[in-house]
Amino acid sequence: MDAKKIHYLSKKDFDKYKSLQMDYLNRLKSSFTEESNEFNKACINIANDLEWQTENEPSCPNFYNDCIGLWKKSFLYQKKVSDDLKISLVSYSQLAQRYQKISNLYIKKKSLQNALKYTLKALEFHRKNYEERVPPKWDFIDGELIPLSKDPKELFYTKSGRERTTIGGYGLCFLNYARCLSIQKKYKEAIEMIDKASMYFQIFPRIHNLSQLEKGMNLVYNKSKTGIKLIEDSLNNLDKIDKKFTKSEIELMDKSKDLIKKK
Fold first, then answer.
1. Same domain (yes/no): 101, 185
2. In this structure, are 191 and 235 located in the same domain?
3. Statement to judge: residues 168 and 242 lie in one domain
4. Which of 102, 213, 240, 252 could form an S-S bond across to 234 if both were Cys, CB 3.0 to 4.6 Å?
């Protein structure tokens, strides 16, 4: 199968590439059933792969619906096995990340109610995770993750130098919530939520400047005179980042540029 995958990717035939993946999944279903760990792992891997292709390959069609369906199959498996064994298969942190994955996909589809539903579930499990275990140099008080240090390295990196992804993930969850508010045209609340989110990824230039771009757009929608300046500054900062942007990020940047042209 790997040779065929490489062939279809080289030909940019993404529909056949997806069909190959789904055929493989159906074979696993026939051999092991949907309640098998093999089927569950394949759902997760294929969902992540199809989302990556959608976001990073210019000619790839939108596979968001397929990704959502695969994540939901994985959740059904987790629930069934967890109910049978009376224990959770994954940690609160992993559950938060997985709910957030579906939330991201629904936001890209502009499906407000579903995006909000899964964002709130992700926040719920992020909070349960911090109630159980708080990262070093942080505290969790009254449902809020509070920094106990002013040193960014202590807050956002482990002693071995690895990024604390759960901190940034928590911030991205609030950013998704802000996006849900913006879709509802609750721009003031969205701006406040972006400010809250930024606290958890402020030292990472890419996501910080993208979030500030979104803040600037919400400021413009909310008739604030400061919005255009923030958009321009954020775009300038993003231009200096030597990284490839995803389709969603490029769409966001293009949308912000259109706001500048209208002013």
1. yes
2. no
3. no
4. 213
CA dist 111 and 206 (Å) reads: 25
Token representation of residue 121: 């579930």
- Domain tally for the chain? 3
Range of the domain at 2: 1-89
CB 122 within 8 A of CB 130: no
Residue 212 shares a structural domain with residue 191: no
Counting residues of the chain whose pLDDT is more than 90, the rounded percentage is 85
The burial class, CB within 10 Å (0-12 / 13-18 / 19+), for 132 is: exposed
CA-based nearest residue to 122, from 142, 138, 107, 139: 107
Residue 134 sits in the same domain as residue 183: yes
Answer yes or no: do 101 and 74 share one domain. no
- For residue 184, the model assigns a pLDDT of 94
Do residues 160 and 75 both lie within one domain? no
Torsion of CA 46, 124, 155, 171, to 10 degrees: 70
Provide the whole-model pTM: 0.92
pLDDT at position 88 over 80: no
Note the pLDDT of residue 263. 73
Query: 10 Å Cβ neighbour count for 238?
Result: 21
CA distance 189 to 180: 10
Both tokens of residue 225? 């005179």
SS3 category, 167? helix
C-alpha 4: how far from chain center: 29
Asked whether the beta carbons of 106 and 246 are under 8 A apart, the reply is no
64-85 and 37-56 helices cross at what angle (nearest 10)?
A: 150
C-alpha dist (Å) from residue 111 to 16, 49, 137, 208, 236: 27, 22, 37, 24, 30
